[in-house]
Each structure stands twice: as C-alpha cells, then as structure tokens.
Amino acid sequence: MTVLTSLVVFSTISFLFFGISCFLTNYMRTEFVRYGLSKQQRLIGALQILGAIGLSFGFVYLPILGIVSAIGLSLLMILGFGVRLKIKDSLVQSAPSIIYAIINAFIAIAVLKSL
Fold this sequence. Notes:
This protein is mainly α. The protein is built from 5 helices and no strands.
C-alpha cells in the first residue's frame, strides 16, 4: 500500500467516524455548542460523510471526484481550525484540524499530479 493510498484510507475512515458522530453522540453535540455551531452540526456531519465517500470512490473510480472531495475536506478543516482559534483552544486541541487539512491538500495535489 502506497503512502497516498494509506492517507486516503485514513482520511476516509476518520471523516466517516466524525461525520456519523455528529448525528449520534452527545459529546459532539456539546462540542458544537462550545464551537458556537450547534445549528450547523448536521450540515457539517453530512459534509464530512459526503467528503469521505467522495474521497474513497474518487480515488478508486473517478479521480476528479477524489480531488474535489479532498479539497472540500481540506477547506472544512481550515475553517475548523479558524473556529478553534476563535474560541481560544490550545494548539494541542487545534492541531488535528490543521493536520487533516494538510493531509487532504496533499491527497488532492498527489492525485492531480498523477493524472
């Protein structure tokens, strides 16, 4: 398994987990209240799930879908990082969002270069 494939699998599983959690867990509900985004929780969860599905299917079948999904997930995480900064979370609390943004930006660039 290549590094790119590993990152796609990692990102897909992560975003499926986080997206589904937005619909099912009390923990995510309280986090979205803390972020000031309680009304957007389901939308963000749906975007995470759609991004994960698009990323995996795009990687296997339709590269442009994978690229668009990776860019979308990266943008979502950049916005998430901004929210974390706004609510004054620590660097440790904020780091996962920027790391996921970098991973998905790398995926988008790597798939684009492979076309």
